[in-house]
Amino acid sequence: MNTLQQEDSPRCLSVLEVPFMSSRRRRETAKRLFVTVLAVLMGSSTLLACTGADGVIAEIRTLVETYIRDDISPGLVVGLRFGETTWIEAFGISDIKTRDPLTAEHQFFVGSIAKQFTAAAVLRLIEEGQVSLDASIASYLPDAPEAWSEITIRHLLNHTSGICSLGSMPNDLGEGVIVSEMVIGFIRPTELRFAPGEDWVYSTAGYYVLAYIVERITGAPFEAFVEQEFLGPLGMTDTGYRIQREPDRLAGYHRVYWQGEAMFVEPSDDVLGLGFGMYTTASDLFVWEAALRSGRVVSAATFAEMTKPTETRSASGEVSIHDYGFGLELRFDDLGTLSRVGHGGNGGGHIGIVWSYPEEDIVLIVLQNSDSMLPPLLEEIETVLLNACASE
After folding, report:
1. What values do phi and psi take at 95, rounded to 5?
2. Structurally, how many domains does the chain consist of?
3. Residue of 181, 310, 325, 360 with fewest CB within 10 Å of its CB?
């Protein structure tokens, strides 16, 4: 099995898109509007008042225990930062062969959650003046094809380049370590789906190109740059990339789990650079999320750019807005307020999310050691969180 099959899909869509019913969004908006107006009338500086963390954790624990008991997943690690409270708990088993319990210390492959690390690496170089956001990527890749001449760094960051992820790498690339030049060589001949800036399509291949640009500018492997600039300084010792070192406490790796049965697989022997194969823990993801939001990864102004929605203009002049920033999936409520920011990811035998709710000061992390059936649980958990913050 080739490594790239674990993350990309031929449809070029996000690997974890959770639909939310419009009626529920209307209820959320009504609650938010009521609480906001109440806070203004009372002269309060806090827009949303949330109920106690203990009750919220108890409700979420019940949901997850039911999910495990119904054999929908072997195991999950759930993390919640709710105001001043941080809670991390593991549920279920690590793998269905050994029946070993899952722990909060187990590591998970996080798939596209890693895109925010890639975006942050590029934005760090922009802040240092080594890269320009709106420069053609041909400025940094002299061997870029002519079709890429109008693609800018911005286009790659917000998925408007027209470069589409095409699924798995061809078998003739071989096995073992797949080096950066091989990956870019596979992407380079593909035709653009549209002219840069005219449309939006989720593109992991575009993020491989970004990581390659980091390598060309710094002269170091992308993973080494991220380790030096972010992971080391932040103390994220349980986070890394397979191309540098293998995880030492990897959670079981399952596909298509249902009622106690699954295809139990080991991670592919193929090892790919350019930011692929990232693993981490819930604890380290909390460290990263707090650092990213507080200006310790990129500046506050740069983070604000990361959380702006993307605008495209078609050839006919039609303008569209897309809820994606730089390496971050966004959601806005009906009042236009950013209500959730983060990313989901599918590691082929793992799946997870990191979601932050800015108004409520809540961060939710869920890591599961199988790659299916997670979205319904996430919707139930989110309902608990938002109800708790709109009930007073």
Report:
1. -150, 155
2. 1
3. 181
Q: What is the pLDDT along the chain (392 residues), one digit of tens a residue?
A: 333 333 433 334 333 333 333 333 433 433 343 333 333 333 333 335 687 899 999 999 999 999 999 999 999 999 999 988 999 999 999 999 999 999 999 999 999 999 999 999 999 999 999 999 999 999 999 989 999 999 999 999 999 999 987 665 655 565 667 778 888 988 998 899 999 999 999 999 999 999 999 999 999 999 999 999 999 999 999 999 999 999 999 999 998 777 777 877 777 777 788 998 999 999 999 999 999 999 999 999 999 999 999 999 999 999 999 999 999 999 999 999 999 999 999 988 999 999 999 999 999 999 999 998 899 999 999 999 999 987 54
Residues spanned by the domain of 42: 3-388
Q: Are the C-beta atoms of 64 and 56 separated by less than 8 Å?
A: no
CATH number at residue 382: 3.40.710.10
**Cβ-based neighbour number of residue 172 at 10 Å:** 6
Threshold 0.85, pTM exceeds: yes
The rounded distance, in Å, linking the Cα atoms of 324 and 144 is 26
Rounded to whole angstroms, the maximal C-alpha distance in the chain is 67
